[in-house]
Amino acid sequence: MSATDAVLDPVALLAGRLADYRATVHRCHPSGLAAAVATALARTHRVAAPADLPAAWLSAWHGDVVHDDAGAPLALAELDAPAVSVVTGCAVAMAETGTIILDAGPRQGRRALTLVPDHHVCVVAADQIAVSVPQALARLADPTRPLTMISGPSATSDIELNRVEGVHGPRRLDVILTDDPAPSR
Amino acid sequence: MSSVPSPITAARPFPEAARSALADQQLRDNLRRATATIRDKRQRVVDEVPDWEDLRTAGARIKDDVLARLPELLAQFEAAATAAGARVHRAADAAEACRIVTGLVRATGSDEVVKVKSMATQEIGLNEALADAGVAAVETDLAELIVQLADDTPSHILVPAIHYNRSQIRDIFARRMPGVDLSTLTDDPPALAEAARRHLRAKFLSTEVAISGANFAVAETGTLVVVESEGNGRMCLTLPDTLISVVGVEKIVPTFADLGVFLQLLPRSSTGERMNPYTSMWTGVTPGDGPGDVHIVLLDNGRTPMLADPVGRQALRCIRCSACLNVCPVYERVGGHAYGSVYPGPIGAILTPQLTGQAAGANHTLPYASTLCGACYDACPVKINIPEVLVHLRASGPKPPAARAGMRAVARVMRRPRWYRAGLRLLRWAAAPWRLVARGGQVRRLPWPMSAWTAGRDAPLPPRGSFRDWWARR
């Protein structure tokens, strides 16, 4: 995809770049969000979520949900249990590199929440997508918040310099891109 | 000088160390495969960026600006980080940095720390210093873990275990990794990554102190940045109570927006990815999110003296991507250990002797570890003119007295046309018998005292006639 196409359709560019790095991408209309989240959670026993995650996002999911609250944070062992998935939003996404940025802001929770579970489901709205690295950094509200940039699932290139997915971070990353078909461009 | 071997002082002259490395066929196979892989990957993602050359220029300019006003930016960084709740320490040299970090770890009462891969802590020999103080340092980056389990030393800036192939790594895990499950351990890379995950999981969730380096330190905000792949960095930077980061003073960038340049240059140059899987940024302490006790040790260790050399100081632009290693024909054949420093390859050949001074150990031989082909300069994301610095260091470094006297004599002859013509005639006469044994116009070994000259290079035979002779005959 050329740079011009990217500016025209950052959602498609982001989806392609995420898939390149073995993230599972779901694209849907905002009204189909809950169903897409439930699909991503097919193998999940329990969902861990930041306290301010909109309840509607999990409305089609019928399993167990635990919330991570500043007053009562979940224990690491609870996050590390098998088949736990974490569902969050994000601050900004970077289309050109297939990157999601978390800044511990709304719908994201603290850093450990998106790190310890083996499966991360991240919801990205079309208006959160910037095209380039500098554009994405400029859109962060406050760079002194704890920031995590995520490009695909955990990986390593340490064995013969070939990329292998799945080391210490979440081994599965599902990204749900919600796109309004009539955006105000 | 201390008698403990320094991680940035070559014990053996480079030609001698290179000879033993060249004799290792397995090593050369492993390096050829790994560097060829990464060269292709890098080229693909670099070609995809239309303004790559402008990005390189921007990266070089930002770093030059930093080097021009380093004290001011360090003070700004320190003030911002301190205001955000970090405690900033300054270390003039390796010994002081080790003393500070060891003291901080001891104060926590822990006898074990988890570590994120860091060149700065390699450079100061921190793991050894911690061990002397009774603290076990657990490397959590996969390649560092391999090297640590093998009781070996790193041979590459980015992939310290590049000299091992998958079956060698499997053997190291089988022999040295406590509690490894031999029934599932194959030499398949995902199986090896899984073994590392299981081995380190409990440590991440329970260890109270972590030690890291940083790829960038933002003066404007007091923010530190760690760029990584596996998630071991996120684990170490997020879960422990205490975080100690050792940061070379040249890691400073002036503003947060400057990261927009370097976060494009670094991943594409180092692992050949559009973006590395994980980048963490933190500014001091955030209550309820991550370590509550955050320390930053700003390390000089020979950097400030380098600023006085207008040619050599460009080595301090380095962002440790290791692209220069991967394209270097010398590195590809000898590997990292031959350089005798934690900084190998082309950048190591100019950085190591400048950090220590050329008088340290055999470091003065490192600027000769190059064919001056210039591939490193083309690959460097911050446009460090490595060949220029190599030649500069050769000119300013120590040379054998005989070579010095010989060069002076040649210079005297070349200043006088008549002597020069006579000299050439004499040379052609003396070279006549060599034409019978020389191959391709080159002599491999000359007799003493010229044998010192041909120990490291071939000597070309002089042409049969000079241009002046030919012109005179017309």
Report on this structure.
- The complex is a heterodimer of chains A (185) and B (474).
- Chain A is built from 5 helices and 12 strands.
- Chain A is globular, with a radius of gyration of 16 Å.
- In chain A, the strands form 3 sheets. A 6-stranded parallel sheet of chain A has the order 1-12-7-4-2-3, sandwiched between helices. Chain A has a 4-stranded mixed sheet with strand order 8-5-6-9.
- Chain A has 185 residues and is α/β, with parallel strands linked by helices.
- Chain A has one domain (3-178): NagB/RpiA/CoA transferase-like (Rossmann fold).
- By secondary structure, chain B is α/β, with parallel strands linked by helices.
- Among the domains of chain B are: 49-161 and 201-301, Rossmann fold (3-Layer(aba) Sandwich); 401-473, no CATH class.
- Chain B is built from 22 helices and 12 strands.
- In chain B, helix 3 (52-68) packs across helix 12 and helix 16 (345-356) packs parallel to helix 18.
- The interface between A and B is large, with 53 and 68 residues.
Q: How many H/I helical runs of chain B?
A: 22
Radius of gyration of chain B: 25 Å
The named CATH superfamily of one domain in chain B: NagB/RpiA/CoA transferase-like
CATH fold descriptor of one domain in chain B: Rossmann fold
Would you tell me which CATH topology of chain A applies? Rossmann fold
CATH architecture field of one domain in chain B: 3-Layer(aba) Sandwich
Query: Taking all residues together, what is the mean pLDDT of chain B?
Result: 94
